[in-house]
């Protein structure tokens, strides 16, 4: 090196590539292990309660994916696409107008010990199921076939009430269904109803969760790869929005992609559905085992 030539500065090690905020999943999912979760749920038995079932009450806005979620749970257990809960393919106002219990068939032809009730969409203040109807559903006063349509005559509606509900008629978990792609469009009337329902459930100690449907419509990453659901920043943001809107903690929010256009079931979709169901069933079973719930008197 000649005189006057300066030495090149020592090479700095190149900085590490910027770390993506969510390149690691924030919630662990046992991908590839759906059979274990399915088996666990199939062998679930209610202990210490007179109830044969935990009753899962599914509420939410019309088009949120309530019927699709119930069908998706059934699909996961039957290993094929079923359509018992009648998903509305036409859009518009609520398709489900009657109170109906959905059972899931076990391999031996009996029913699994958890059942679902789908209620008419909450829509807004005037149309849709009102908060009072849902309160009655929570307390077990609605009989099969109860008509949520307030335009039907009173006498017809009155047929739908039960006078002395058993423990098994009462809701043991409240599942709010919210579509990830529609959270910001949620009607104030619906949010108001959801809050009222939540308050009542809280007073009665009924566990509550949010199933956040249609995640792939809110996040292209998830659209490409469902296993990125707990890596996606967008999904986390949407879950936080759900949490703030309804007041349910993040740990009780489960993003789930429902079956909607598939012709076969898929292990990854099944896993998300069954993991959420496992949490729901465990929380509901804890409530049933609680003596104070069993002995509590319910008055309207
Ligand atoms: N892409 C997508 N569509 C869904 C999902 N869940 C439900 N849907 C669709 O959303 C629409 C409303 O669903 P539905 O179950 O009838 O809603 P409900 O009114 O709450 O019972 C239907 O067209 C479904 O096929 C999902 O996870 N992803
Ligand atoms: Mg429906």
From TrEMBL:
Residues 1-30 are annotated as: Disordered. The lineage of its organism: Eukaryota, Metazoa, Chordata, Craniata, Vertebrata. InterPro entries: P-loop_NTPase. Residues 20-30 have a biased composition (Basic and acidic residues). GO terms for biological process: immune response. Residues 7-19 have a biased composition (Pro residues). PANTHER family: INTERFERON-INDUCED PROTEIN 44, INTERFERON-INDUCED PROTEIN 44-RELATED. It comes from Hemibagrus wyckioides. It comes from the Eukaryota. This is Interferon-induced protein 44-like. Transmembrane segments: none annotated.
